[in-house]
Amino acid sequence: MPVKAFITEKFLLSNDKAVQLYNMFAKDMPILDYHCHLSPADVAENRKFNNLFEIWLEGDHYKWRAMRSNGVPERFCTGDSDPYDKFKAWAETVPYTLRNPLYHWTHLELKRYFDIDDLLGPDNADAIWGKANQMLETDDFTTHAILKRFKVAALCTTDDPVDDLEAHRLANQSGLQTKVFPTFRPDKAMALGNLKAWNAWVDALAAAGDVDIKTLSNLLDALKRRHEFFHQIGCRLSDHGLECALVDFPADHEAAAIFDKARSGGEVSGDEARRFGSYLMLYFGRLDAEKGWTKQLHLGAMRNNNTRLFRALGPDTGFDSIGDFSQARALSAYLDRLDSEKALPKTIIYNINPSDNYIIGTMIGNFQDGSIPGKIQFGAGWWFLDQKEGMEWQIKALSNLGLLSRFIGMLTDSRSFMSYPRHEYFRRVLCNLIGRDIEAGEIPDDDDLIGPMIRNICFHNAKNYLALDE
Predict the structure, then answer these.
(1) Is domain 148-466 given the CATH code 3.20.20.140 in the classification?
(2) Does pLDDT of 2 surpass 70?
């Protein structure tokens, strides 16, 4: 007996009002993907993918984690196995992902990209591989065509200050309607845990900024030059991945002494590294405020837990987890210090630990200053929380503690061009929650009131807040 289609028009929509809201106000809205890890070079060259592995599995540590949990050897995850064999290993894993968001994402992506309704498994892996690969041979699946199909108005990649941003320039000169912007991610400036790598990075920064970096002042000058260069290319966002905010602020001379020690190859303690990072985080905040940028703080990830496999495979390969770091006091001190200097930029705060939802939800209210709506944002469910339950928790916390109507909505945070249905996934979750509230009589059944809010959360709030075209 054939299985009924899983991804239907009512997917994740549990009531009639939710279906109406989604179709009327969310379904056809453009996408502003303001935080992702897509390759700007893939966009610039209008990459055409050779097979389903390349577009779907390449670099996807979410899938690798599931495959390892299913007993799949590493050679089929990050190893040198044939692309088809890796896909087959994933297909064999998919039936075991029931109730994991990967099951939802897998079938939503197959439906939206290839109009495949079949439930992926080992028995139909060959057929799905063949159909998808045949479609990938057409010009409908180049990176440009995908961005056009999903109405991506703009995307913001994640970029190191030493990057030359040539791919962004080429992408924006290619005739592509989607605007491609960089994001300034200077985490390596604070990575004093490995001084050999840090000094090599400082040398690269010196070359990129055309500055001989011998002093802390030189370092700050080089970072400012790169910040200005990013601005000229259209960058309007920075980003920082931190366990928690860094707030042990040293004086200028103390930071200079730490820099001198690090630059000369001396031993830097963990406390000194944190103090140096605190100093730079203030500097980055001031730079962002001067330029009118938006700062993103991604807080709470505990990275590279498996030492053996980190040494073998490197970072971002699926060995990170939620950390239980104390967030409230440090985050308050960081935001307050910048605010006291009148140098607090627009800021989006993402947490990876759901226990911090109410901390972030209340913290953002402390630093709204009336200058713009929602100046400090509680970011969308991130990483382990960018699934139905995590999205609902974030939306409910923000609704209870702040203004959901001013929320700037979802992003992909992805390395895959197959991830744009995550915006649909979020929009369905949002409309389902609001539809349930309406049917329960908890908010008015007034499309003139509700419709603009949904459209704003899906697109307009982010567009107005980020001001990427300014």
Answers:
(1) yes
(2) no
